[in-house]
């Protein structure tokens, strides 16, 4: 799953097949992306490298996207730890 599309110096996040500008991204949109990262195989999520974001022309848009992408990368890198922590605190219930 691709989370960001870069086109002609502009960026848009891909949320449920819709293109959303970074400044229009809502909390629900961010939650959707983070849920996808958590639920899917982390290798299937395509998060662009920070160097790729240099293509964005608007400096404010670039900063917003860089901050969001950086947090997504941190979250993606910690998904396994988060899963283990949740499973240890909430073990499966046996009938």
Low-confidence stretches: none
Secondary structure tally, helices? 2
| Shape field | elongated
Order of helices and strands: EEEHH
Helix content: 40-55%
- Count of the separate structural domains: 1
Total DSSP E strands: 3
CA radius of gyration is: 15 Å
Main structural class: alpha+beta
Question: How does the major sheet shape up?
Answer: 3 strands, antiparallel
Average pLDDT score: 90
Give the spatial strand order of the biggest sheet. 1-2-3
Strand content: 5-15%
State the end-to-end distance: 36 Å
Keyword list:
single chain; 95 residues; alpha+beta; 3-stranded antiparallel β-sheet; 2 helices; 46% helix; elongated
Report on the architecture of this protein.
The protein has one domain. The protein is α+β, with helices and mostly antiparallel strands and 95 residues long. The longest helix is centred in the C-terminal third of the chain and has 31 residues. It is 46% helix and 14% strand. Strands 1-2-3 form a three-stranded antiparallel β-sheet, covered by helices on one side. The model has no long low-confidence stretch (mean pLDDT 90). β1 and β2 form a beta hairpin. It is built from two helices and three strands.
In short:
By secondary structure, the protein is of the alpha+beta class. Helix content is 46%, strand content 14%.
Ordered list of secondary-structure elements with their pairings:
Blueprint (H helix, E strand, L loop, with lengths): L3 E4 L2 E6 L2 E3 L6 H13 L19 H31 L6
Antiparallel strand pairs: 1-2, 2-3
Helix pairs in contact: 1-2
């Amino acid at each position: 799953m691709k989370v960001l599309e870069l086109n002609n110096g502009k960026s848009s996040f891909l949320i449920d097949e819709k293109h959303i500008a970074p400044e229009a991204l809502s909390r629900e949109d961010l939650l959707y992306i983070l849920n996808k990262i958590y639920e899917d195989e982390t290798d299937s999520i395509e998060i662009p490298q920070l160097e790729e974001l240099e293509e964005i022309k608007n400096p404010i848009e670039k900063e917003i996207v860089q901050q969001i992408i950086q947090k997504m990368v941190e979250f993606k890198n910690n998904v396994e730890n988060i899963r283990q922590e949740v499973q240890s605190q909430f073990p499966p219930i046996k009938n």
